[in-house]
Amino acid sequence: MANTPGDHDHGQHGGQDHQQGHDSHNWASPEYVSKWAQGQDLKETHRQEAFKALADTIPYNKTLPIKILDLGAGYGGLTGFLFGHFPNATAICQDGSEEMARLGHERMKEFTGRFAYVITDFSRHGWSKLLPGPFEAVVSSIAIHNVNSPNIVRGIYEDAFTLVKPGGCFLNFDRPQPLWEDQMKWLRGAGFEDVKIFWQAETRAVFGGFRR
Ligand SMILES: C[S@@+](CC[C@H](N)C(=O)[O-])C[C@H]1O[C@@H](n2cnc3c(N)ncnc32)[C@H](O)[C@@H]1O
């Protein structure tokens, strides 16, 4: 996965080298992940407003048994929130880090049976084919910017479109890396409609679109 030493792109999204992400994360390291998750706990309450805006934008009745795909799900901060909002939803948590998946199983114990992890790297060719779509909602939180390559981000959006059920949506809560305007242009190019920013703070926004 991105930011892991020895990682190489195999070309689907433009073949740029993306070994070094914008931040120096080491998501493969149990020590790093554990420390990051502890630090994140303090910030978790600040994310609720953005998560709520994202949940409210998913175009389905709360009681429906929708299928969610959380890209770069980590320990399931967003997935867990969405389970509260959509009590009959199930989710596939995609992540490149085995350690995050282990932590996710621990932290989302109360939701056992409603989620499964799929370990794949969304910056590598073929990642979307390993996921059991389509999904009513493909979502992501503070993960896609990690690839640090405009071409790869654009490719991820193209692949994400194929995973969204007609009538469904793709919603990303992330930083302006690349710029939100560019990312929204790529979302439109991928086929999403009504693409816009649904919630915004200084350095983070919830943006995305719908598959008609
Ligand atoms: C900042 S954490 C966010 C986790 C979670 N979405 C949240 O908001 O709490 C970034 C996550 O993206 C994952 N990630 C980074 N690059 C990835 C890649 N190329 N493929 C899959 N997952 C990746 C990391 O393993 C990590 O779990």
Care to describe what's here?
The chain has 212 residues and is of the alpha/beta class. Helix content is 32%, strand content 23%. Helix 5 links the parallel strand 4 and strand 5. The radius of gyration is 16 Å and the shape is globular. Bound molecules: S-adenosylmethionine. The site of S-adenosylmethionine has 20 residues, from helix 3.
Bound molecules: S-adenosylmethionine
* Strand segment tally: 7
Number of helices: 6
Please trace the helix and strand order, writing H or E for each element: HHEHEHEEHEHEE
Shape: globular
Structural class: alpha/beta
Major pleated sheet = 7 strands, mixed
Given as residue ranges, the uncertain stretches (5+ residues, pLDDT < 50) are 2-22
Could you give the order of strands across the largest sheet? 3-2-1-4-5-7-6
The CA-CA distance between the termini, in Å, is 31 Å
Helix residue percentage: 25-40%
Mean pLDDT, nearest integer?
90
Strand content: 15-25%
Rg result:
16 Å
